[in-house]
Amino acid sequence: MTIADEELAEQRASVDRIKAPSRLRVVMGRLLRSGRGRTGFTLLVLIFLLAFAGPYLTRWTYVSKDFTAFMAPPSTEHWWGTLQTGADVYAVTLRGLQRSLIVGLLAAVVGTALAAVVGAFAGYFGGWTDRGLTWLTDLLLVLPAFLILAIMSPLFVGGQWPVFVLVLALFLWMVTSKIVRSMTISLREREFIHAARFMGVPPTRIIFRHVIPNMSSLLVVDATLNVSAAILTETSLSYFGFGIQPPDVSLGSLIADGARTALYAPWTFWFCAGLLIVTVLAVNLVGDSLRDAFDPTSHRGG
């Protein structure tokens, strides 16, 4: 190897060592440098640990009944007290938290994915495709989502909560879809999209490989904020008996049951209500901080 080759190899090695950090690492660094981001992320981690690891810390399950302790206050035997049925509040509340988190996450991911696909196809193809998908979007925007979900609630009986997730996701994507459509109309005129067309790349491949990935920051933030929207919607529906159906439970159904006894047995209400407030707060803090991390110019302090 000549001296020139050795120098070239050293230059390549030095370039590799000082390679620019990935976008994900930059975004996570900005997120964790933000006070709101650290607080929200820490709360979310603790909530997930409590929901999915917490049930293993007690011998009671959400279907267990203690017929010697009805409406008992918190004690060493029942950490968060019991309900009118003798069910352990700690076990039942964590089961409800699990279900609300799963419903919120799945509905947010499905809704955001649907928004990305519909908006990208409408904006890229234009013409009748754009008109048809825009008409569908506008139609769903004016439909009363709460009423439709309430009417369809009999479909959610017997552990059919995945059906509830899909129906809920159908009413979460429309506004984001319109934003994606506008961004796609701008993106399709960019040079790299024209180059892909001239190379004969199929339109669907261009959409999924070039258009949608260029909107990842918008979609990540939207999915995060949709989690809290989905959790609140599920809680509202379950509160009125239209969401997660017995024998399963969610935070909404527990809050509805606990509201009747909140004055003289506050432990039946405030544990589940408090977890709902903390969960939604944590998700919103993370969502706002992610938005600032992807777009530092929108940062307003904190």
TrEMBL record:
Keywords assigned by UniProt, alphabetized: Cell inner membrane, Cell membrane, Membrane, Transmembrane, Transmembrane helix, Transport
Domain ABC transmembrane type-1 per the UniProt entry, residue ranges: 97-287
InterPro entries: BP-dependent_transpt_permease (IPR050366), MetI-like (IPR000515), MetI-like_sf (IPR035906)
Pfam families: BPD_transp_1
Membrane topology, as annotated: Multi-pass membrane protein
Highest rank taxon of the organism: Bacteria
Membrane-crossing residue ranges in chain numbering: 40-58, 101-127, 139-157, 163-180, 264-286
Cell membrane is among the record's keywords: yes
Main location: membrane
Compartments reported by the entry: Cell inner membrane; Cell membrane
Family membership: Belongs to the binding-protein-dependent transport system permease family.
PANTHER family on file: OLIGOPEPTIDE TRANSPORT SYSTEM PERMEASE PROTEIN APPC, OLIGOPEPTIDE TRANSPORT SYSTEM PERMEASE PROTEIN OPPC
The protein, known as: ABC transporter permease
Organism per entry: Streptosporangium oxazolinicum
